[in-house]
């Protein structure tokens, strides 16, 4: 029996449940939104799992096409053949679903069992915070898993398709990709980006909910329990170790951003030293230009290389003339998103 891996996020819940059905001896299918036009209730990459009894988990629409998709899934289990189906959403139905207008959605429906190992390997990758891409050829369902620069599966990957997979991973965006006259769906699976906030200050109380709404998993680090009190940050993961110890334990990677807000060298400097030793895609520190210059001098004296200090955004945030804690939080979040998406940040 294949152990059901712990996926993350909504898609992970679907896949984990489907693997669980297989482990219980039930046949299963999975439907995936591969493209949309106009308004669509669910984004590209959304999954719906179906078992042989018609039970389902997840969603590929607001409920308007699920019944038809379930029937397609049951037939895919019976025949062992995948299929690509297209549905329209009328303007009237779209209005009922809270959309501005109608549209179309293409859904790939496939028996799950033949590629069970691909999904299990994907789950293990995500459990280890490693991003990957599952490439599916839409005419026959053959798949390849691209992970850590290597591919596995029954789909040969090379040339433009390999480039497309790498680009989808870099863009963190699932897409339909044409290669040699055949369509492939490149489904990106990536652990949530993390924001580590060092300093349980007033700005953090505004920044953290903004980051969560943007899709970040947020961790607050501050050994000062008076500041990092649960009632000030309810429901949040709070680390009370010294910042360098906490950051070392968190294994910062390329999907991590670090924001240092304490304005206290005893906390700021160890946090920034640990951040600079990591692959974090964003490092920012609160303070004026004079404060940042003094901070850089201290870091150099403690052994940091001058060139590495260019990674620190200081003063932190896009220059929008922010004054209040909430406005400063907006400027910080804007700069993080700009860094993440390759924007100019101006």
Describe this structure in words.
By secondary structure, the chain is an alpha/beta fold. The protein has two domains: 9-189, no CATH class; 194-338, Rossmann fold (3-Layer(aba) Sandwich). Helix content is 35%, strand content 25%. The chain has ten helices and 16 strands. It has helices at residues 9-23, 66-79, 91-96, 116-127, 159-171, 202-213, 243-249, 265-276, 289-301, 325-341, and strands at residues 28-38, 47-51, 56-58, 83-89, 103-111, 132-137, 143-147, 150-153, 175-179, 182-189, 194-198, 217-221, 237-239, 256-260, 282-285, 312-313. Strands 13-12-11-14-15-16 form a six-stranded parallel beta sheet, sandwiched between helices. A five-stranded antiparallel beta sheet has the order 3-2-1-5-4, with helices on both faces. Strands 8-7-6-10-9 form a five-stranded antiparallel beta sheet, with helices on both faces. Helix 8 links the parallel strand 14 and strand 15 (282-285). Helix 1 crosses helix 4 (116-127), helix 6 packs across helix 10 (325-341) and helix 7 runs parallel beside helix 8. The termini are far apart. Mean pLDDT is 89; it is low at 1-5 and 97-101.
């Amino acid at each position: 029996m294949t152990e059901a891996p712990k996926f993350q996020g909504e898609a992970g819940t679907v896949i984990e449940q489907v693997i669980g059905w297989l482990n219980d001896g039930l046949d299963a299918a999975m439907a995936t939104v591969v493209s949309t036009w106009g308004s669509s209730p669910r984004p590209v990459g959304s999954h719906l799992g179906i078992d042989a009894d018609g039970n389902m988990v997840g969603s590929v629409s607001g409920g308007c096409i699920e019944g038809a998709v379930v029937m397609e899934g049951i037939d895919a289990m019976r025949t062992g053949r995948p299929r690509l189906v297209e549905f329209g959403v009328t303007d009237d139905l779209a209005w009922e679903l809270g959309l501005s207008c109608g549209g179309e959605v293409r859904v790939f429906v496939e028996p799950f069992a033949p590629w069970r190992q691909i999904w299990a390997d994907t789950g293990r990758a995500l459990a280890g915070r490693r991003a990957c891409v599952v490439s599916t050829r839409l005419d026959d369902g053959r798949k390849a898993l691209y992970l850590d620069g290597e591919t596995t599966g029954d789909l040969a990957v090379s040339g433009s398709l390999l480039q497309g997979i790498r680009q989808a991973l870099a863009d963190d965006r699932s897409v339909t990709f044409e290669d040699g006259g055949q369509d492939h769906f490149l489904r990106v699976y990536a652990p949530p980006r993390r924001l580590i906030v060092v300093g349980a200050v007033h700005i953090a109380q505004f920044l953290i909910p903004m980051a969560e709404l943007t899709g970040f998993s947020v961790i607050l680090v501050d050994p000062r329990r008076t500041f990092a009190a649960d009632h000030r940050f309810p429901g949040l993961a709070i680390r009370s170790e010294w910042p360098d110890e906490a950051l070392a334990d968190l294994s910062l990677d390329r999907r991590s951003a670090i924001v240092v807000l304490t304005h206290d060298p005893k906390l700021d400097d160890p946090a920034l030293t640990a951040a600079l030793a990591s692959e974090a895609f964003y490092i920012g520190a609160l303070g004026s230009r004079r404060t940042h210059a003094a901070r850089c001098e201290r870091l150099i004296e403690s052994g940091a290389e001058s060139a590495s200090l260019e990674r620190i955004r200081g003063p932190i945030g896009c220059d929008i003339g922010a004054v209040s804690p909430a406005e400063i939080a907006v400027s910080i979040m804007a700069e993080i998103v700009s860094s993440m998406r390759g924007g100019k940040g101006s």
